[in-house]
Amino acid sequence: MASLAEALATREACCVTTARQPYYIIHVNRAWTQITGWKAADAVGRSANILQGPHTQPQQLEALRAALNAPSPAPITLNLINYTFQGVPFTNTLRIQPIRNCNGTVTNFSAIIESSPVLEPAVVPLGLTVPLQLAEKRAASETASTVSVDEGSPKRRATSRLRRIARTDLSAVLANSEEAIVLTELSRPHRITHVSKAWCEMSGYSMEEVDGATSAILQGAETDRCLIDDMMMSLRRGESSSATVYNYKKGGVKFLNQVQVSPVWEDGKIAQYMGILHEVVES
Fold first, then answer.
1. Which residues neighbour 40 within 8 Å (Cβ) at sequence distance 6 or greater?
2. Which of 14, 122, 200, 240 has its CB surrounded by the most CB atoms within 10 Å?
3. How far is Cα 15 from Cα 92, in angstroms, rounded to an integer?
4. Cα-Cα-Cα-Cα dihedral of 63, 64, 65, 67, to 10°?
5. pLDDT at residue 203, rounded to an integer
6. How far apart are the first and last CA of the chain?
7. Where are the beta strands (DSSP E) in the chain?
8. What's the pLDDT score for residue 280?
9. What is the pTM assigned to this prediction?
10. 164 pLDDT more than 80
11. Are 126 and 37 within 8 A, CB to CB?
12. Mean pLDDT of the chain, nearest integer
């Protein structure tokens, strides 16, 4: 995978992390949750070591750390014994690839996992290995999902609050990303839900200023609307795309912007749209 957009759009069981220890998870897709049992709301913001357990091989972990911490990380493939949310061990063929920005700087890692049975008889299921509080939260969430409640009921309000908390956690992770990232709502007019610190630094807008705005805040007289429309059509088809357009920073400063857009999938459905911005220096 050459870009973060491609990593988020893949249908393989994929997890995307930050580029620095402790390698916080910023995204997981449906295939990853099906293998691991970890829901996105529980996994995002946690370290990638949530899949480790007592039989995870320390030699393999050391090789993995060395590869990730190398001055110029290269793709690595290795086999690990990992554990699901419920403590069930599985053999994980793990493929990790660095994701670089247009300057060649590693900004994230994508981790593709493939599960197969553990053949060693000594490696047995451990039962629930996650913190009790998280297990209770999962059980309460699954129970609530089977109960029909009124929109204004306390249960519905509590569910909405938990969703807001999960989004806040994601926002905190994105704030530490070195990429200029913007996430928008799925439905028109596609209002901005999150921006990274790098996006704010590039555009000149603060997070508070873009709250409730749309990405049109960066458009101006020389923005090619046809290219923007083409990218939106790709997103609605569930496809990633890219284009180079003129955008405008706060104050009206024009800049050439290489934009990569991608749908973000959750539970097999497109949940939101993501854009990654790279300022291009004109010669």
1. 27, 28, 33, 266
2. 14
3. 13
4. 90
5. 95
6. 28
7. 14-18, 25-28, 76-83, 89-100, 106-116, 180-185, 192-195, 241-248, 254-266, 269-280
8. 86
9. 0.56
10. no
11. no
12. 80
